Amino acid sequence: MIRNLSSTAKRILRCEVLSMHKYSCYFSAALLAGILATQAVGEQPAAQGTIAWRFEVLANYISHRADVARDGTVYFNDSSGFLYALTPAGTLKWVYDGESVGSAGPTVVGTDGTIYFGLSSPDAAVHAVNPDGTRKWIFSAPESQGVIGGPGVGPDGNVYAIFDLGGDIGAVSLTPEGTLRWNNLGNPRVAELGQLGRELVFGGGNVYFTSSYYGDIYGFDLLTGAQRFFTNSGVADQAAATRNGALYVPTGSQLNAYTRTGQFRWSFFDDLPTPTNDLTAPDIGRDGNLYINRNLSELYSLTPTSSGAVVRWVAPSFIAGGPVPGPIVSPTNALLLMGGQANFGQPGLIEGFSTTDGAVLFQINIPKEPDGTCAVPYARARFTRTGNRAYIPAAQLCEVPDQYHSWLYAIDIVTP
Questions:
Q1: What does the alpha-carbon distance between residue 109 and residue 385 come to, in Å, rounded to a whole number?
Q2: pLDDT tens digit string along 242-276?
Q3: Could you say which of 4, 69, 237, 313 is the most buried, measured as most Cβ atoms within 10 Å of its Cβ?
Q4: For the chain, what percent of residues have pLDDT higher than 70?
């Protein structure tokens, strides 16, 4: 069912569900066979990853991670400002029209099932949407240039977001009912140039925000909104944090570690034999080990300590795709999932890696589309709670299409 959709949106929306177990209305038989033939590597892989279905939208990008509700419903937003709800089978439940020029940041689901996503200027706001697709509330910041961090749901169940320059909002905390708990402009004021949609990370009673362009790193107290610390690292890309507040920030050339109070602890990758010129967003497994992709071709597993990081293993990898790229660890801690492409201009690629030694457990090669374009993973994966499925957005690259499309891929994962 499609709700809250403008007449313009209804005219341009085209979505379709592609199943590996049912007929396809989009793939040709040869293209479908190509996907099936290239989904796994090796005769008897330790784990298997297969495409369950993909969902197509008429949008330039799906730039941010989806999220999954407890009932299995998957939610994501696109670059045109629409929020989608799909069943686990890939069937469209509804579309919510944000009535804006574009979305900003990830889609997140609260503890009560409310869905949150942000919008860019001139309608900068956080929208809260009920599980049935109706609007719950809107927190607007009309003078801001848009949401540059979040929205994110903290461990306390409250909603957090960072608004760009313009107006007097800055960092903000809202209750699930949309009531303002606190806001803090930041000192110096929080800002970003080029709104990538930073995911907020939480730990040690803090919410953390990092700015790639300005290199700023902030920690705000969850309860009061007081600024716990500010520091600058020149470049500060998407961070990761542990529950106790240890913060890991890639700077492009090195990975910096900080305490919950912002004290610098150590850096890594700055003294390797070969220069480091690219680092993805890191992710942390439930055992505390950290995973990050380096120089478009090396996947690292590190064990952080109080004084540095110990390399567990290094494995060959590929170019991780999207504005916030990187590997994601499954909830079971059995594997890493990362999407991208083997090289620029080549078709999309999804691989599962062992967390034990970095071995490739499975590989999914996405064939080119009939028009010669490529569906390339364009955001990090989101696993279901059981870890037996992951959702990865993909964008249309390689060639300039007559009409841009984007996709959400559902990947079924079987581990021994």
A1: 13
A2: 999 999 999 989 999 999 999 999 999 998 889 99
A3: 237
A4: 88
CA nearest neighbour of 268 among 284, 283, 253, 290: 253
Q: Which secondary-structure segment (H or E) carries 11?
A: helix 7-12
The candidate with the shortest Cα–Cα distance to 129, out of 79, 95, 88, 92, is: 95
10 Å Cβ neighbour count for 141?
25
Average pLDDT over residues 201-217: 97
For the entire predicted model, the pTM comes to: 0.89
Residue type, 115: I
Q: Which helix (H) or strand (E) holds 9?
A: helix 7-12
- Of 315 and 28, the structure prediction assigns the larger pLDDT to 315
**How many CB atoms are closer than 10 A to CB 400?**
10
Q: Which stretches of 13-86 are DSSP H helices?
A: 29-37
Average pLDDT, the chain: 89
Q: Which two tokens stand for residue 5?
A: 């959709």
Least confident of 187-196, 200-209, 245-254, 329-338: 187-196
Confidence of residue 47 (pLDDT cuts 50, 70, 90): confident
**Furthest CA-CA distance within the chain:** 59
Q: What amino acid occupies position 338?
A: M
From the centroid of its chain, how far is CA 94? 22
C-alpha to C-alpha distance for 295 and 239, rounded to whole angstroms: 17
Provide the strand spans (E) within 122-179.
125-129, 135-140, 147-153, 159-163, 171-174
Residue type, 259: T
SS3 percent helix, strand, coil of the chain, rounded to 5, is 5, 45, 50
Is the distance from CB of 55 to CB of 92 less than 8 angstroms? yes
Alpha carbon separation from 366 to 36, 374, 376, 405 (Å, rounded): 10, 8, 8, 15
- H helices of 25-92, where? 29-37
Q: Which two tokens stand for residue 215?
A: 């290199």
The amino acid that residue 349 corresponds to is L
- Interval 396-406 mean pLDDT: 91
Q: Identity (one letter) of the amino acid at 31?
A: L
Question: Which token pair is 394?
Answer: 């993909």
The two three-digit tokens of residue 272, written as one number: 């390797």
Exposure letters 192-214 (e unless 16+ CB within 10 A, then b): beebbbbbbbbbbbbbbbbbbeb
